[in-house]
Design a protein that fits this description.
The protein is about 45% helix and about 20% strand. The chain is built from ten helices and ten strands.
Amino acid sequence: MTNKRILAIETSCDETSAAVIEDGKTILSNIVASQVKSHQRFGGVVPEIASRHHVEQITLIIEEAMHEAGVRYDELDAVAVTEGPGLVGALLIGVNAAKAIAFAHSLPLIAVNHIKGHIFANQLIAEMKFPLLSLVVSGGHTELIYMSSPDSFEIIGETRDDAAGEAYDKIGRVIGVPYPGGKHIDDMAHRGEDTYNFPRAMMHEDNYDFSFSGLKSSFINTVHNARQKGEEINSEDLATSFQAAVTDVLVAKTIRAAKEKQVEQLVLAGGVAANKGLRHALTQAVEEELPDVELLIPPLTLCGDNAAMIGAAAFVQLENNTFSDFSLNGKPGLSV
């Protein structure tokens, strides 16, 4: 049987990425051009600037991915691209690049959901076993997704307001750490103590949904009140207390859902999967409470947005002959 190779493209937010993936699990190349420095001075991603960077980078990144993989276009089996969710202008750059390549080289076109891509990043490190539960935690999403098969996705819990990653970035701005705030808060959290005892919203409610807006408000009010009174603030203790509140809720609900669904595997996915505190807490909880369940956590290089994960997810669709036509468009609000 010949190996199947997919050229994958990802431009949903502020990373321009292209990768060549073989058989849905082997990375032949995975090139990522980050725009973090361009957006840092604004404290967040500016959609128009993100789109312009994608336009400048997309052709170069695709060429580099093909060159590093040592693959010609006539050796590809398909072109895959993120169709959503994401920033509409950013998505359109990748979608149109993929359509142009697919048309020029008579290749099947595969549209991939960005969130499914994050989940399938785990396929690049180990075989995914079903049924499984995925905890997806990123700047825009916090979801528990149950999968009975590779192409079955059931959202059993999601955030009702802020995503966890979004809350990290917002409280990072309050205490003055550079964007993106998540990594800085995570680093600080390992040097402080949980002295502020922030609320663990919905942790014991009979559902698998999340809410982080109350935690964010409590954090901001604590900081503002202390500053108005001229009291000294321990930023590291604040970070530790905030991170403890987030991870306690995420881990508790994930473990409970995994037990109820009787899954074989638990996978962590999304940009916040890079968080050291969350990785440690989830690993410890699985060892103690789910000894028969395998936990998969992607390496840091596959936690953020990248095209390799899009190629891994696309392989399932290639095997099922699930292709798109040239009317494919960016879908910023696409759900799983």
